[in-house]
């Protein structure tokens, strides 16, 4: 359905296609989606409970990890239930305002996720390069302040996006070739000139994920320089081992994010289903993998998880 306002046509309801060309396989595709979502929910909730119950884990790294887990829970819960509804019940309809809201949550929460990964990199930098000042630099007040700043950055910088899309004139179609309301998928339906809006989107992307990634690389360059000056190979390996989990989290988050960005900008000859699969991996895999990575690499989290299982089975 289309409505007319002062700027032109706007859909009242959008229709999500899912994965073009694979509609007949949606039920089968939904199985790994559901399992990954279930693992993400259980893993992140368990991680939050373990850190909360163990005072020895009330360190900056794990407090930032808890903030990351909260964002992951909100990110997956704002998208995956609707995707599963589409796959299971062919529930393709999503209201215009709900679509803009979902798009805002996806990009705002992804920005926060990037910010918390940067905060964790800062913690590793201070712990390795300024170990004697770690507790005096990363005080509880500083941790709370950084957390609030990261949240406010995501909220404020992404707030114009729904309004920019709300007042645009759309072509006479309401079909979104995607599994959820993504910014680039919506832009393709717009008939107005969108260069300024695309420029704003690129600037925001650089000031958030792009700048975060540059700062993370800089922090690890400084960490490596410090580690290489340590006197023994054993101490170097021991120090680097404290960064392994965080490096995996960086790779899991930024690899699909960059692939998704590059395929949208330069992969015009790539099949649409590949674009959509990469975009879904970007939403699904990091929230599932983050608690697994820290559970495997951190002994206290691993022990806390087994303790929770023992209590529940008792």
UniProtKB/TrEMBL annotation:
UniProt superkingdom: Eukaryota
Species for this entry: Chrysochloris asiatica (Cape golden mole)
PROSITE patterns named among the record's database cross-references: G_PROTEIN_RECEP_F1_1, G_PROTEIN_RECEP_F1_2
Subcellular location, record wording: Cell membrane; Membrane
A molecular-function term among this protein's GO annotations: olfactory receptor activity
InterPro entries for the chain: GPCR_Rhodpsn, GPCR_Rhodpsn_7TM, Olfact_rcpt, OR51/52/56-like
Pfam families: 7tm_4 (PF13853)
The protein's name in its UniProt record: Olfactory receptor
Domain G-protein coupled receptors family 1 profile: 43-294
PANTHER family, alphabetized: OLFACTORY RECEPTOR (PTHR26450:SF410), OLFACTORY RECEPTOR 56B1-RELATED (PTHR26450)
Annotated Gene Ontology cellular component terms: plasma membrane
Keyword list, A-Z: Cell membrane, G-protein coupled receptor, Membrane, Olfaction, Receptor, Sensory transduction, Transducer, Transmembrane, Transmembrane helix
């Amino acid at each position: 359905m289309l409505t007319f306002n002062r700027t032109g046509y706007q859909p009242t309801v959008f229709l999500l296609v899912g994965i073009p060309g694979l509609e007949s396989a949606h039920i089968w595709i939904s199985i790994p989606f559901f399992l990954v979502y279930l693992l993400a929910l259980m893993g992140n909730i368990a991680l939050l409970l373990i850190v909360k119950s163990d005072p020895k884990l009330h360190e900056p790294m794990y407090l930032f990890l808890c903030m990351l887990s909260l964002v992951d829970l909100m990110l997956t819960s704002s998208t995956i239930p609707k995707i599963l509804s589409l796959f299971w019940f062919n529930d393709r309809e999503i209201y215009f305002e709900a679509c803009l809201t979902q798009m805002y949550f996806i990009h705002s929460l992804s920005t926060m996720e990037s910010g918390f990964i940067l905060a964790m990199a800062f913690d590793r930098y201070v712990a390795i390069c300024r170990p004697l000042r770690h507790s005096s630099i990363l005080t509880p007040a500083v941790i709370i302040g950084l957390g609030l700043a990261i949240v406010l950055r995501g909220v404020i910088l992404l707030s114009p996006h729904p309004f920019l899309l709300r007042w645009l004139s759309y072509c006479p179609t309401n079909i979104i070739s995607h599994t959820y309301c993504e910014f680039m998928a919506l832009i393709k339906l717009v008939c107005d000139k969108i260069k300024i809006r695309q420029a704003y989107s690129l600037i925001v992307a650089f000031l958030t994920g792009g700048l975060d990634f540059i700062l993370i690389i800089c922090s690890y360059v400084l960490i490596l320089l410090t580690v290489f000056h340590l006197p023994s190979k054993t101490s170097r390996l021991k120090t680097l081992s404290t960064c392994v989990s965080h490096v995996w989290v960086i790779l899991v988050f930024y690899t699909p994010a960059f692939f998704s960005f590059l395929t949208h900008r330069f992969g015009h000859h790539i099949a649409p289903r590949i674009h959509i699969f990469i975009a879904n991996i970007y939403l699904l895999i990091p929230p599932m993998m983050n608690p697994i990575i820290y559970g495997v690499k951190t002994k206290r989290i691993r022990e806390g998880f087994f303790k929770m299982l023992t209590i529940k089975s008792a």
